Amino acid sequence: MEESADTSSSSSSPYFSIFTNYPLISAVLAFTIAQVIKFFTTWYKEKRWDLKRLVGSGGMPSSHSATVTALAMAVGLQEGFGGSHFVIAFILTSIVMYDATGVRLHAGRQAEVLNQIVYELPAEHPLAESMPLRELLGHTPPQVVAGGVLGTATAVFGYFITLIVK
Questions:
Q1: What pTM does this model have?
Q2: CA-CA distance, 104 to 115, in Å (whole number)?
Q3: For residue 125, what is the enclosing H or E element?
Q4: Structural domain of residue 148, as residue ranges?
Q5: In total, how many domains does the chain have?
Q6: Is residue 108 part of a domain?
Q7: For the chain, what is the largest distance between any 2 Cα atoms, rounded to a whole number of angstroms?
Q8: Gap between the Cα atoms of 52 and 102, Å rounded
Q9: Which residue windows are transmembrane per the record (predicted)?
Q10: Is residue 3 part of a domain?
């Protein structure tokens, strides 16, 4: 009887282990902190609340960089920096950070130019009424670095918390 109770409690344990997964928590927390910073920065600069900043891309700091950096650091701190899991997370981090300052940044700049062209079209032109493209897609290198620093700090802080709690 007691054995079946142990079996049932251990079988439900894997479902709840996601809530104690240190790399996942670090990554989600870093993303959330970055987005909240953007939200309040927009309010401070523009004196308006913009709820889109809580989920939107672009701006300071890079939430994508913060997320993947926190993930890689947490994996490295938890499982070691020499293991294959850290290498996978590190490569993912490198690709995301490169993409943020490369492809996405330039796509946003192209959107600016295209929006200006459409804006200058005569009113009778079929594209004159088209919706503007999103311009805030990528990040400048300082925004990506700031996201990386935030992600690293979040993971390291979380690691020390896990050591204290244990």
A1: 0.73
A2: 16
A3: none
A4: 22-47+58-102+141-165
A5: 1
A6: no
A7: 81
A8: 23
A9: 22-44, 80-98, 144-165
A10: no
